[in-house]
Write a structure and sequence with these properties.
Blueprint lengths: L1 H24 L3 E2 L17 H4 L4 E8 L5 H5 L2 H7 L3 E4 L2 E10 L6 H10 L5 E5 L7 E3 L6 E3 L5 E4 L6 E4 L3 H4 L8 E6 L3 H16 L3 E7 L7 H13 L4 H10 L7 E4 L7 H7 L1
Parallel strand pairs: 1-8, 2-4, 2-5, 5-10, 10-11
Antiparallel strand pairs: 3-4, 6-7, 8-9, 11-12
Helix pairs in contact: 8-9
Length: about 280
Protein backbone atom coordinates (compact mmCIF):
# COMPACT_ATOMS: atom_id res chain seq x y z
CA UNK A 1 0.00 0.00 0.00
CA UNK A 2 2.82 2.39 0.91
CA UNK A 3 4.54 1.60 -2.42
CA UNK A 4 1.34 2.30 -4.40
CA UNK A 5 0.83 5.61 -2.60
CA UNK A 6 4.39 6.67 -3.32
CA UNK A 7 4.01 5.60 -6.96
CA UNK A 8 0.77 7.57 -7.37
CA UNK A 9 2.35 10.58 -5.69
CA UNK A 10 5.31 10.37 -8.05
CA UNK A 11 3.02 10.20 -11.10
CA UNK A 12 0.99 13.20 -9.92
CA UNK A 13 4.17 15.16 -9.24
CA UNK A 14 5.51 14.39 -12.73
CA UNK A 15 2.21 15.40 -14.34
CA UNK A 16 2.24 18.66 -12.38
CA UNK A 17 5.81 19.41 -13.40
CA UNK A 18 5.03 18.73 -17.06
CA UNK A 19 2.00 21.01 -16.87
CA UNK A 20 4.08 23.80 -15.33
CA UNK A 21 6.78 23.35 -17.97
CA UNK A 22 4.24 23.55 -20.79
CA UNK A 23 2.70 26.64 -19.22
CA UNK A 24 6.09 28.33 -18.89
CA UNK A 25 7.04 27.57 -22.48
CA UNK A 26 3.69 28.76 -23.79
CA UNK A 27 2.80 25.36 -25.23
CA UNK A 28 -0.51 23.55 -24.67
CA UNK A 29 -1.53 19.95 -25.03
CA UNK A 30 -3.71 19.53 -28.08
CA UNK A 31 -6.27 16.83 -27.28
CA UNK A 32 -8.54 17.67 -30.22
CA UNK A 33 -7.11 19.27 -33.38
CA UNK A 34 -8.67 22.34 -34.89
CA UNK A 35 -11.53 21.74 -37.30
CA UNK A 36 -13.10 24.06 -39.80
CA UNK A 37 -16.34 25.69 -38.74
CA UNK A 38 -17.75 25.21 -42.22
CA UNK A 39 -17.09 22.47 -44.74
CA UNK A 40 -15.09 23.53 -47.76
CA UNK A 41 -16.38 23.14 -51.30
CA UNK A 42 -14.20 20.87 -53.42
CA UNK A 43 -13.12 22.51 -56.68
CA UNK A 44 -11.22 21.26 -59.67
CA UNK A 45 -10.10 17.71 -60.41
CA UNK A 46 -7.00 15.53 -60.21
CA UNK A 47 -4.42 16.29 -62.90
CA UNK A 48 -5.04 13.10 -64.86
CA UNK A 49 -2.88 14.28 -67.75
CA UNK A 50 0.21 14.22 -65.53
CA UNK A 51 -0.63 10.94 -63.80
CA UNK A 52 -1.17 9.12 -67.10
CA UNK A 53 1.70 10.71 -69.02
CA UNK A 54 3.82 7.52 -68.90
CA UNK A 55 0.88 5.26 -69.83
CA UNK A 56 0.60 3.84 -66.30
CA UNK A 57 -1.41 4.54 -63.17
CA UNK A 58 0.59 3.33 -60.17
CA UNK A 59 -1.24 3.22 -56.83
CA UNK A 60 0.30 2.06 -53.54
CA UNK A 61 -2.04 1.42 -50.60
CA UNK A 62 -0.65 1.19 -47.04
CA UNK A 63 -2.66 -0.33 -44.20
CA UNK A 64 -1.31 0.81 -40.85
CA UNK A 65 -0.64 -0.97 -37.59
CA UNK A 66 -3.65 -2.48 -35.78
CA UNK A 67 -5.89 -2.34 -38.84
CA UNK A 68 -8.67 -4.97 -38.76
CA UNK A 69 -7.76 -8.01 -40.86
CA UNK A 70 -11.26 -8.28 -42.34
CA UNK A 71 -11.03 -4.70 -43.58
CA UNK A 72 -7.75 -5.39 -45.34
CA UNK A 73 -9.05 -8.63 -46.84
CA UNK A 74 -12.09 -6.75 -48.15
CA UNK A 75 -10.03 -5.05 -50.87
CA UNK A 76 -8.27 -8.14 -52.24
CA UNK A 77 -10.90 -9.13 -54.85
CA UNK A 78 -11.06 -5.63 -56.31
CA UNK A 79 -7.28 -5.18 -56.31
CA UNK A 80 -6.73 -8.52 -58.04
CA UNK A 81 -9.34 -7.65 -60.67
CA UNK A 82 -7.94 -4.18 -61.39
CA UNK A 83 -4.21 -4.90 -61.26
CA UNK A 84 -2.78 -5.15 -64.78
CA UNK A 85 -5.96 -3.98 -66.50
CA UNK A 86 -6.12 -1.00 -68.84
CA UNK A 87 -8.33 2.04 -69.01
CA UNK A 88 -8.47 4.65 -71.76
CA UNK A 89 -7.97 8.36 -71.22
CA UNK A 90 -8.52 10.56 -74.26
CA UNK A 91 -8.11 7.54 -76.46
CA UNK A 92 -4.79 6.47 -74.97
CA UNK A 93 -4.35 3.23 -72.96
CA UNK A 94 -3.30 3.47 -69.31
CA UNK A 95 -2.21 0.34 -67.43
CA UNK A 96 -3.26 0.01 -63.80
CA UNK A 97 -0.67 -1.15 -61.26
CA UNK A 98 -1.71 -1.55 -57.60
CA UNK A 99 0.57 -2.45 -54.70
CA UNK A 100 -0.60 -3.13 -51.15
CA UNK A 101 1.59 -2.94 -48.02
CA UNK A 102 0.58 -4.03 -44.50
CA UNK A 103 2.30 -4.31 -41.12
CA UNK A 104 3.54 -7.83 -41.96
CA UNK A 105 5.71 -6.55 -44.81
CA UNK A 106 9.43 -6.07 -44.25
CA UNK A 107 9.95 -2.47 -43.08
CA UNK A 108 6.70 -0.90 -44.37
CA UNK A 109 7.74 2.50 -43.03
CA UNK A 110 10.75 2.49 -45.36
CA UNK A 111 8.53 1.43 -48.29
CA UNK A 112 6.13 4.27 -47.45
CA UNK A 113 8.95 6.83 -47.65
CA UNK A 114 10.17 5.29 -50.91
CA UNK A 115 6.68 5.51 -52.43
CA UNK A 116 6.45 9.18 -51.48
CA UNK A 117 9.81 9.88 -53.12
CA UNK A 118 9.27 7.76 -56.24
CA UNK A 119 8.37 9.97 -59.25
CA UNK A 120 6.71 7.00 -61.00
CA UNK A 121 4.16 6.43 -58.18
CA UNK A 122 1.02 8.45 -58.91
CA UNK A 123 -1.12 7.80 -55.83
CA UNK A 124 -0.10 6.97 -52.25
CA UNK A 125 -2.86 6.02 -49.81
CA UNK A 126 -2.32 5.46 -46.09
CA UNK A 127 -5.22 4.18 -44.01
CA UNK A 128 -4.78 3.63 -40.30
CA UNK A 129 -3.77 5.31 -37.06
CA UNK A 130 -2.33 8.81 -37.03
CA UNK A 131 -1.09 8.36 -33.43
CA UNK A 132 -2.91 11.51 -32.27
CA UNK A 133 -0.85 13.65 -34.64
CA UNK A 134 2.56 12.00 -34.31
CA UNK A 135 2.38 10.25 -37.70
CA UNK A 136 1.57 7.05 -39.56
CA UNK A 137 2.11 3.80 -37.58
CA UNK A 138 3.30 0.63 -39.29
CA UNK A 139 4.68 -2.56 -37.64
CA UNK A 140 3.66 -1.44 -34.13
CA UNK A 141 2.34 1.67 -32.42
CA UNK A 142 5.83 3.13 -31.95
CA UNK A 143 7.03 2.40 -35.50
CA UNK A 144 5.97 5.86 -36.67
CA UNK A 145 6.66 7.95 -39.74
CA UNK A 146 7.07 11.16 -37.74
CA UNK A 147 5.34 14.01 -39.56
CA UNK A 148 3.50 16.07 -36.93
CA UNK A 149 2.82 19.79 -36.86
CA UNK A 150 4.93 20.31 -33.74
CA UNK A 151 2.08 20.28 -31.22
CA UNK A 152 2.23 18.64 -27.80
CA UNK A 153 -0.25 15.79 -28.23
CA UNK A 154 -1.83 13.39 -25.76
CA UNK A 155 -1.13 9.71 -26.49
CA UNK A 156 -4.17 7.77 -25.29
CA UNK A 157 -2.96 4.34 -26.32
CA UNK A 158 -1.09 4.04 -23.02
CA UNK A 159 -2.07 4.48 -19.37
CA UNK A 160 -1.41 6.87 -17.82
CA UNK A 161 -1.67 9.05 -20.93
CA UNK A 162 1.58 10.56 -22.19
CA UNK A 163 2.19 14.05 -23.51
CA UNK A 164 4.54 13.92 -26.50
CA UNK A 165 5.69 16.49 -29.02
CA UNK A 166 4.56 15.62 -32.55
CA UNK A 167 7.85 16.01 -34.41
CA UNK A 168 8.43 15.76 -38.17
CA UNK A 169 11.93 14.34 -38.67
CA UNK A 170 10.84 11.61 -41.10
CA UNK A 171 8.80 14.01 -43.20
CA UNK A 172 11.64 16.54 -43.19
CA UNK A 173 14.03 13.92 -44.60
CA UNK A 174 11.61 12.92 -47.38
CA UNK A 175 12.46 14.40 -50.78
CA UNK A 176 9.24 14.67 -52.75
CA UNK A 177 9.75 14.64 -56.53
CA UNK A 178 8.79 17.53 -58.75
CA UNK A 179 6.13 15.44 -60.44
CA UNK A 180 2.40 15.39 -59.77
CA UNK A 181 1.22 12.99 -57.09
CA UNK A 182 -1.90 12.41 -54.99
CA UNK A 183 -1.41 11.55 -51.31
CA UNK A 184 -4.36 10.46 -49.17
CA UNK A 185 -3.93 10.37 -45.38
CA UNK A 186 -6.99 8.44 -44.22
CA UNK A 187 -6.41 8.86 -40.48
CA UNK A 188 -8.35 10.46 -37.65
CA UNK A 189 -8.27 14.25 -38.06
CA UNK A 190 -5.38 14.13 -40.51
CA UNK A 191 -6.25 17.62 -41.73
CA UNK A 192 -5.64 19.24 -38.34
CA UNK A 193 -2.70 17.02 -37.49
CA UNK A 194 -0.73 16.93 -40.74
CA UNK A 195 -1.78 19.43 -43.41
CA UNK A 196 0.47 22.23 -42.16
CA UNK A 197 3.61 20.12 -41.82
CA UNK A 198 3.12 18.29 -45.12
CA UNK A 199 2.24 21.52 -46.92
CA UNK A 200 5.46 23.13 -45.70
CA UNK A 201 7.49 20.18 -46.94
CA UNK A 202 5.84 20.26 -50.38
CA UNK A 203 6.83 23.91 -50.73
CA UNK A 204 10.43 23.19 -49.74
CA UNK A 205 10.62 20.41 -52.34
CA UNK A 206 8.64 22.43 -54.92
CA UNK A 207 6.38 19.40 -55.38
CA UNK A 208 2.95 19.60 -57.07
CA UNK A 209 1.08 17.31 -54.68
CA UNK A 210 -2.65 17.11 -54.03
CA UNK A 211 -2.95 16.20 -50.33
CA UNK A 212 -6.24 14.58 -49.31
CA UNK A 213 -7.01 14.70 -45.59
CA UNK A 214 -9.89 13.99 -43.21
CA UNK A 215 -11.69 15.85 -40.44
CA UNK A 216 -13.18 13.88 -37.53
CA UNK A 217 -12.29 10.30 -36.53
CA UNK A 218 -12.11 7.54 -39.12
CA UNK A 219 -14.15 4.40 -38.39
CA UNK A 220 -11.61 1.88 -39.64
CA UNK A 221 -13.92 -1.14 -40.00
CA UNK A 222 -15.20 0.57 -43.16
CA UNK A 223 -11.98 2.10 -44.41
CA UNK A 224 -11.80 -0.39 -47.27
CA UNK A 225 -15.10 1.01 -48.60
CA UNK A 226 -13.72 4.54 -48.59
CA UNK A 227 -10.44 3.47 -50.19
CA UNK A 228 -12.21 1.49 -52.92
CA UNK A 229 -14.61 4.36 -53.59
CA UNK A 230 -11.67 6.75 -53.90
CA UNK A 231 -9.87 4.47 -56.35
CA UNK A 232 -13.04 3.87 -58.38
CA UNK A 233 -13.59 7.62 -58.68
CA UNK A 234 -10.03 8.09 -59.94
CA UNK A 235 -10.54 5.34 -62.52
CA UNK A 236 -13.72 7.12 -63.62
CA UNK A 237 -11.85 10.45 -64.03
CA UNK A 238 -14.12 12.08 -61.43
CA UNK A 239 -13.68 15.64 -60.21
CA UNK A 240 -12.92 16.45 -56.56
CA UNK A 241 -16.54 17.34 -55.80
CA UNK A 242 -17.66 13.83 -56.74
CA UNK A 243 -14.79 12.21 -54.84
CA UNK A 244 -15.59 14.22 -51.71
CA UNK A 245 -19.30 13.44 -51.95
CA UNK A 246 -18.69 9.70 -52.12
CA UNK A 247 -16.24 9.76 -49.19
CA UNK A 248 -18.41 11.92 -46.96
CA UNK A 249 -21.47 9.71 -47.59
CA UNK A 250 -19.71 6.68 -46.03
CA UNK A 251 -20.50 7.80 -42.49
CA UNK A 252 -20.94 4.44 -40.71
CA UNK A 253 -21.67 5.72 -37.18
CA UNK A 254 -19.17 8.57 -37.31
CA UNK A 255 -19.18 11.84 -39.20
CA UNK A 256 -16.31 12.28 -41.63
CA UNK A 257 -15.33 15.13 -43.90
CA UNK A 258 -12.82 14.97 -46.74
CA UNK A 259 -10.69 18.10 -47.15
CA UNK A 260 -9.39 18.86 -50.62
CA UNK A 261 -7.41 21.94 -51.61
CA UNK A 262 -6.47 21.23 -55.23
CA UNK A 263 -3.42 22.66 -56.92
CA UNK A 264 -5.20 22.70 -60.29
CA UNK A 265 -8.67 24.09 -61.01
CA UNK A 266 -9.56 23.72 -64.69
CA UNK A 267 -12.07 25.82 -66.55
CA UNK A 268 -15.30 24.42 -68.01
CA UNK A 269 -13.68 23.63 -71.34
CA UNK A 270 -10.93 21.62 -69.65
CA UNK A 271 -13.50 19.72 -67.62
CA UNK A 272 -15.31 18.65 -70.77
CA UNK A 273 -12.09 17.53 -72.45
CA UNK A 274 -11.44 14.85 -69.82
CA UNK A 275 -14.22 12.56 -71.00
Amino acid sequence: MIYNKRRNYTILTCCFMVSVLLLLTGMTVRKTPERRKEDTAAKGRPVYEEMFRDGKLRIVVFWGWDHPRDTIMGVFPAFETLNGKRLYFRGQPVQIEIGMITQINDNPKRIFKQALEDPTVDVVIYSGHGRYGRGMAFTDMEDIYHCGNGDIVEDRHVKPYRNIKATSEDLDSTHFPQTYKIIMLNTCDSNGHFRNSWGRRFKVCNSPVDLITVEYPVFNYYDHVRVLNFMQDLLSFSDWKTIKKHYDSEIHKRKNRLIIEPIFVPNDQEYASVN
